[in-house]
Protein: Beta-fructofuranosidase
Amino acid sequence: MSSKISHKYHSYEYGSTSFLLVVLILFITTTTLYIHGVEASHDFHYNLQSVEAENVSQLHRTSYHFQPKQNWINDPNAPMYYNGIYHLFYQYNPKGAVWGNIVWAHSVSTDLINWKALEPAIVPSKPFDQYGCWSGSATILPGNKPVILYTGITEGPPKNVQVQNYAIPANLSDPYLREWIKPDNNPLVVANNGENGTAFRDPTTAWLSKSGYWKMLVGSRDNDTGIAYLYKSKDFVNWTKAKDPIHSKPETGMWECPDFFPVSLKGVNGLDASVTGEGVKHVLKVSLDVTRYEYYTVGTYVTEEDRYVPDNTSVDGWAGLRLDYGNFYASKSFFDPAKNRRVIWSWANESDTAAHDVAKGWAGIQLIPRTILLDPNGKQLMQWPVQELETLRGAKVVLTDKQMLVMGHRIEVNGITAAQADVEVTFSFGSLEKAEPFDPEWLEYDAQKICSLKGSTVQGGVGPFGLLTLASQELEEYTPVFFRVFKAQNTHKVLMCSDATRSSLTEGLYRPSFAGFVDVDIAADKQISLRSLIDNSVVESFGARGRTCISSRVYPTLAVYENAHLYVFNNGSETITVENLAAWSMKKPLHMN
Ligand SMILES: *[C@@H]1O[C@H](CO)[C@@H](O)[C@H](O)[C@H]1NC(C)=O
Ligand SMILES: *[C@@H]1O[C@H](CO)[C@@H](O)[C@H](O)[C@H]1NC(C)=O
Ligand SMILES: *[C@@H]1O[C@H](CO)[C@@H](O)[C@H](O)[C@H]1NC(C)=O
Ligand SMILES: *[C@@H]1O[C@H](CO)[C@@H](O)[C@H](O)[C@H]1NC(C)=O
Ligand SMILES: *[C@@H]1O[C@H](CO)[C@@H](O)[C@H](O)[C@H]1NC(C)=O
Ligand SMILES: *[C@@H]1O[C@H](CO)[C@@H](O)[C@H](O)[C@H]1NC(C)=O
Ligand SMILES: *[C@@H]1O[C@H](CO)[C@@H](O)[C@H](O)[C@H]1NC(C)=O
Ligand SMILES: *[C@H]1O[C@@H](CO)[C@H](O)[C@@H](O)[C@@H]1NC(C)=O
Structure:
């Protein structure tokens, strides 16, 4: 009933009556069905799934983050490098700006920056995937043969029965691997051995063990226990489930998009999925469907028993370490043999509403791919935008040795396009004497809650200091990314926030005070670095060389294009010095779908 009405209204201007009308009409006529436990908690807006935007809004589109021309996107799938080409597949609705009609869209690149869109690679067509082609991963088999494992849906809602399938390139000589074949001996893995077939998805990249078996994981749950089942195979076709899951954890709910990979204890190279042994730790990352956040642990892969044991320095559960404390989900990494690095991709969803998304004609971006390494302390990961991003750097400004004495002091960073920028800055201070006490009650709180109590407008001791991104002239709108140091019992705690509270004058947006703690020895260092990638509606930040990362989606109305400003600021009583700051205008890639 409603799709006919909503077809007519797509004009999009914040504050205009026509926009409000659209929102109102969509609000009234949209039946939002929340089907518990079925698929990745995407809200189901059945009547909007095939509503194509007439005019795609350019406002708030990113310029150097990956986005198709229009429509809904979610999980990155099967990222891989093959014969000189990077491939990115992703969950895509070809017909609308909300989740639905999902296919595997496919883009290729030689540099992870410029992208060429190809035809979708995998679409529902066979009994083993006719109700959906959900997420999966790529493995390069010996002889340089790529193969994709993905989840097919064999029975529609509400059960959405899930099986694991494979697909192979139709023509290995085609440099872009445009066409993928789904052989008839699919599915490879079905839930017939005690697994829950309505919660059984997202196969990982497989690794080759010393015993000659291929192994891979499938995410699942048993009641409230999150599970990563382990499957093994000699020939990649006949898979058997290992006696025990590689890991599971009570009270974490469904594990989506598990990622399991080795990291090197020394050195700066990433490792192929099959590397084990001396000098190697493993990382298990899962996406928690219940909270829509991810967490990871660093631990040991006990290969003889095919078990993963998190180190006692990693919290295994809700409060675990996150790759990113913001809009970041369904991440997936791959080993890039061309540059000997592990690179991770992630989807960042919108923080506006489905009605906004239908009106603007698009939803979802992929964050900038990041190289991923183990912190020399062995306890956490460090992430950094791939070096190729730097080729987009244009006009540059530099600030050095600038003191911010007075509370409320801010310095504008002039001379770059502040709505589309890359900023690297190091702050220092003389003493931690003035650090505010850390309220013992907060031990019960997560970082986000503390940031919502102690935002940038709450003046402090050592901090808040940092960047004001996407700021309007009179500061009606801004998204601060900042640090704040607290004195706890025997130590200092460093909080990093990316706070959307004042990011936009538009009503009805999701404006979280995203935050995480930064694990550094701040008393010894007396300085801390921050890098932010600012791109119209996303601020992607890396604290302390990527030890704590936070991505926020924001939609300023005034701080857009050339009306956006960038500042450094201090709102604490301790003097903060901008040791050095370099900021660049970012160019648009030449090709982006
Ligand atoms: C879309 O854009 C065209 C050309 O600018 C315009 O004529 C049309 O009215 C627009 N449609 C909507 C729904 O705003
Ligand atoms: C495979 O791809 C190569 C390179 O694009 C092309 O020359 C060849 O015709 C293709 N083969 C088939 C069977 O399509
Ligand atoms: C199986 O998964 C479905 C979907 O997540 C859920 O509704 C159901 O409770 C699960 N059953 C068990 C025993 O975990
Ligand atoms: C499922 O988990 C809930 C909450 O932990 C618990 O109350 C319930 O007894 C569990 N059910 C089964 C069948 O284990
Ligand atoms: C599949 O593999 C299992 C375990 O490796 C083996 O027992 C079984 O015979 C194999 N089945 C086929 C059809 O090859
Ligand atoms: C953590 O594990 C290490 C060995 O990996 C051990 O030396 C240490 O005592 C453990 N710490 C705790 C608190 O259990
Ligand atoms: C600093 O604190 C003052 C007082 O609360 C506030 O008016 C100002 O907006 C704050 N600055 C920033 C950047 O939040
Ligand atoms: C992204 O959108 C916000 C606002 O709607 C939700 O609160 C998040 O749960 C959602 N995140 C994911 C991963 O879907």
User: Anything to note?
Assistant: Residues 1-39 have pLDDT under 50 and may be disordered.
